[in-house]
Amino acid sequence: MNTPSIDFRPFVEWDNNPFILFDPKGKILYLNNSAEILLGYVSKKELFDLALTYAPQNFGYKTTSIALRYEAFNFYSITVGYENEEQLAIRFYNAPRLRNHTPVEKEKLTLTDINLLLEANIALFKTKNSNPLQLLTDPDMPQLRIDQNRFSKLLRKVLESFRASDSIRIELKLLVGEHVIIDEQKISIAQLSTMANGRYVDHDKEIKILSEECNIRSNLQESSIKLEIPLIT
Amino acid sequence: METFYTDSPQVQQIIQGLNLTRTLFVSSIVIGEPHIGKKTLVTHLFPDIPVVSGKNQDEVEAILEHSDELIITNFEKLSNKENLVFDNKRIIATADYIGNQKTIDSLFAFIYMMPTYKERPEDLKHLKTRFLKEAAATLMLDASSYTLSQLPTDLTHNSKSLKRAIYHYLMSRNMSKKEIEETLFTYFLEHLEGNNGYKEYVGMYERPLIKAGLKKYGSQLKLSEILGINRNTLRKKIHEHAID
User: Fold this and answer.
1) Which residues of B111-140 are buried (b: 16+ CB within 10 A; e: fewer)?
2) Is the model's pLDDT at A1 over the cut of 60?
3) Superfamily of domain A106-230
4) Complex ipTM
5) Residue A54 needs a FRET pair 20 to 30 A away by CA distance; which of A8, A48, A201, B156 works?
6) Interface test with chain B among A127, A129, A133, by most B beta carbons within 10 Å
7) Following DSSP, what letter does each residue of B98-129 receive, concatenated?
8) What is residue B80's predicted lDDT score, i.e. its pLDDT?
């Protein structure tokens, strides 16, 4: 096959599966768009170490089935390869995401200032808990359509999971460059992260159910809960 | 509109929460013992929202049919809570107790626990001042003759017992001899019966008389002189009425 005139770079660039090219010292020579987002969740060193661990013994490529999870990213496999001593490539294969089957009924959703709901829930939390709580929010966050009651219940459950935690940190930010497709429309995503030194897991099931009902993706970790909220307008 | 004062940080957080959600369509409930100001608080914050008691099941259901905002007091009294639909409505409820936690949890987004007056002593001052003014005005007395520290603090039934105790305190200190006699007359008229009435009820005069005398004069000897009775008779009566 003779393909010298084709530049494959854009295909790699826009591949949804992260791809990174390292030099022998772990410096990144190239990364595609998806890998750029991945690096927001995991360190460069960790990925380089991973590539070294799963690299083939000789020049060539090796694919290994391995379940990896970096916050919102879920991979089921990686391919590591090198053709010379100067470049080591790693490609991650996204695990299929479970589709959310809750239909979006826009007419039942109310245009809402999410900061207001957040503040009200923090006030509720403070009536029962005196844990130090830090809120980092984006005051310019656009309004979004949401079931206010259900979303408030979700926030309550999330905060209650941190009822005995010290130094709770809540962050609300727009996930730049990330979107979700709802009803064939590209929708921006806001991320609400609640983090502490640890948390209770007794509400996890309810958090997952309520999230799904609100079309929110939840990511529940040992000491954090992250909600990816579609900014439906 | 009823006024509501609070210096309690916990209650202030509840007010902040309710104020922040006043433009939102969410359901909130304030739960706490009877007579701690739950209804006063929500009607003060939401003076324009209709108020219905949970005792009136039909009325609650009828209003929910066509209105998107409602205050439901005594929510614990409603019998078909599970079938209520609060979607896209502004509901503020008050309840004396939680009842079925699961139901409350699924119906309400904001569940506030209101502390009792025992747990918020900072609010007692406001309440005592209010009741003193109110009682003094009703009984046509001068409120300034009393200090708050003098007043009793009966919180067994929260504000209800406190109010009663303050009225009682003011009345008992302002009764004339004639009024005391009238009170006793009414009491005996209702209660006197059996075959040992004299012995049973004479203590009602003697006990306060001896107790007050002992407090005022300190010694039995002095009191027997004041009362003009024999010391042994006084001692016998103290023993009889089990006075310390």
Assistant:
1) bbebbbbeebeebbebbbeebbeebbeeee
2) no
3) Histidine kinase-like ATPase, C-terminal domain (3.30.565.10)
4) 0.71
5) A8
6) A127
7) --SHHHHHHH-SEEEEPPPTTT-HHHHHHHHH
8) 82
